[in-house]
Amino acid sequence: MVLGSKKLRSGFTLTEMLVVITVIVLVMAMSVPLFRVMSSDRSVDAGQNVISAMLQRARARAIGLQAPRGVFFFEDQTTKKMAMVLVRIDDPSSAGGANPFANVLELDEEAEDFQTLPMGVGAAFVLGSSPGGSGSASGPGVSIYQPYGLVAFDAAGRIMTVPSFTTYAKGDPRYPTPPDNSARNTRLWARYKDYIGLDVMDLLGKSQSGQDQQISVTTILLFDKAGFSAQPGTGASPALQFSTQQAQWLDNNGLALSVNRYNGTIVRSE
């Protein structure tokens, strides 16, 4: 005798499935911003480690060779990553011509390759603060930044001041003649001019508003490029000048790294 039977349910109703999907979507939506923040923090940490290693390499070369060495920072125009290259720092050209009073940057070794920071990490270089004028940024309490810079070490491994520098030494017999025989130039110019960008090259060694914008620096500001790109710029191409909004954003969101004047180590500034 069959007392009765019930059908066993083997699936979910449409309402139940929609509820589960909604919960999954909400969890994913909340986790993506957190993942981005965590990834950005890790990238900035990685960038700090790369910079630290490069600075220590330059300092060791300066002490070992008993001659100034430095790290030149620039934005690679092909990948838009921040890049660094190890350079030697020669005395100003005695040949006259372009930038005769600027120290000349040259590759430390002929086959020197540049290193890049992680994708999405930018670097700006603090030159001071200005209430106005035609510098990289202007406005009360706004810092002046530029997207390229030099950290230099003397023969004792201490941070040294380089008041003006250039990568272009036309007419200087100390540097090899290019294959086209057009002029004498540095190997740094010949090899990396397209990566550094001709606009940056043209600015090096020149003063803006009475303040030399190429002075060697001891503070490097790392920042998230995605957040920075949302700030309105000046329209300059490439971004050789930062707008007031960009400078204010960097002041509030950048991670300042101070380079110790005596041993080249870097620490995070408050």
Key phrases:
six-stranded mixed sheet, 13 strands, 270 residues, elongated, five-stranded antiparallel sheet, 31% helix, alpha+beta
Q: How does the SSE layout of this entry go?
A:
Elements: H1 14-65, E1 69-75, E2 82-90, E3 103-107, E4 115-116, E5 121-129, E6 143-146, E7 149-153, E8 165-166, H2 187-196, H3 198-203, E9 207-208, E10 211-212, E11 219-224, H4 225-229, H5 244-253, E12 255-259, E13 266-268
Structure description:
This protein has 270 residues and is of the alpha+beta class. It has one domain. Helix content is 31%, strand content 23%. The strands form three sheets. Strands 1, 2, 3, 4, 7 and 8 form a six-stranded mixed beta sheet that branches. Strands 6-5-11-12-13 form a five-stranded antiparallel beta sheet. A two-stranded antiparallel ribbon has the order 9-10. It is elongated and about 85 Å long. Residues 31-41, 132-139 and 208-212 have low confidence and may be disordered.
Could you give a quick summary of the protein structure above?
The chain is α+β, with helices and mostly antiparallel strands. It is built from five helices and 13 strands. About 9% of the residues have low confidence.
Q: Decide which structural class fits the backbone.
A: alpha+beta
Shape: elongated
Alpha carbon gyration radius: 26 Å
Mean pLDDT score, rounded?
79
Residue windows where pLDDT falls under 50 for at least 5 positions: 31-41, 132-139, 208-212
Helix-strand string: HEEEEEEEEHHEEEHHEE
Helix content: 25-40%
Number of helices: 5
Task: Provide the β-strand percentage band.
Answer: 15-25%
Number of domains: 1
**Largest sheet data:** 6 strands, mixed
End-to-end span in angstroms?
84 Å
